Amino acid sequence: xxxxxxxxxxxxxxxSPLLDGVRHGFSTRRGGVSPAPWDTLNLGPxxxxxPENVRxxxxxxxxxxxxxxxxxxxxxxxxxDDVRLCTAADAGKxxxxxRDYEADALITAERDLPLVVFSADCGILLLHDPxxxxxxxxxxxxxxxxxxxxxxxxxxxxxLLGARPERILAAVGPCIGKCxxxxxxxxxxxxxxxxxxxxxxxxxxxxxxxxxxxxTRLWSLLRLLWMSLLSTTPDTAPMARAVTLNSTGNAxxxxxxxxxxELAWTKAAQTLKATRAxxxxxxxx
Length: 285
Hints:
The chain has helices at residues 51-63, 142-147, 149-161, 186-195, 219-226, 272-283; strands spanning 4-8, 11-15, 23-27, 73-74, 83-85, 105-108, 115-119, 123-129, 134-140, 169-172, 211-213, 249-254. By secondary structure, it is α+β, with helices and mostly antiparallel strands. A six-stranded mixed β-sheet has the order 1-2-3-12-7-4, with no helix packed on it. It has a six-stranded mixed β-sheet with strand order 5-6-9-8-10-11.
């Protein structure tokens, strides 16, 4: 299953059909007001762009979903396994208020509380348990993966929000691939130390694994995210319209009362190979 590409008034974003029950998505850098080098849909505060540009970009992006930018909760990523339970008291943190936390993963069961995570070349996961009515947004870099951030996020959704692993749906965003990123030995050594020798057996399927159903073996998503750098990526992966990844990709998840079939947001592109190559290009410029 692949993402659905949307374009409205010059703003391009993608959604996962698996997560139609929540407002979500992957944004591109098209459709904003920021000048170079942030052109144009920069959603990253504190990177040198004018704050009024960033706020306008959020207004445009969120406008297609009915979400309120001033209620967004932004991650403050430090490449660890910190998971934050977000409540209404966190609304606006990172965009209109200072963040008083560090976290690479955000979870919530609050309605109308968008969760935002960022990525240049790391993996992003959006998680949703339809029955429990909770969501999670995870920045899964290799350090976070080695520390078990995805499993920890699922455990916290279970412990705090009543989710069940077998019910959780996961949209896996694009990340850098072996074609574009050479690692030192610390990456495979860290992943093998966490996962064991079998970790090296992962292969990327011909169909994009951006969307999958989580289970008690959710750690397999981690294998996909980072050891794909060292595994076989097929040249035959389906391709949709090419979109250019911003230097900071954003994943956004917002719980809603009713399904929102074709509206949503987040930062990135589309098929495994195409989006990873784009991510690498933008991450190195």
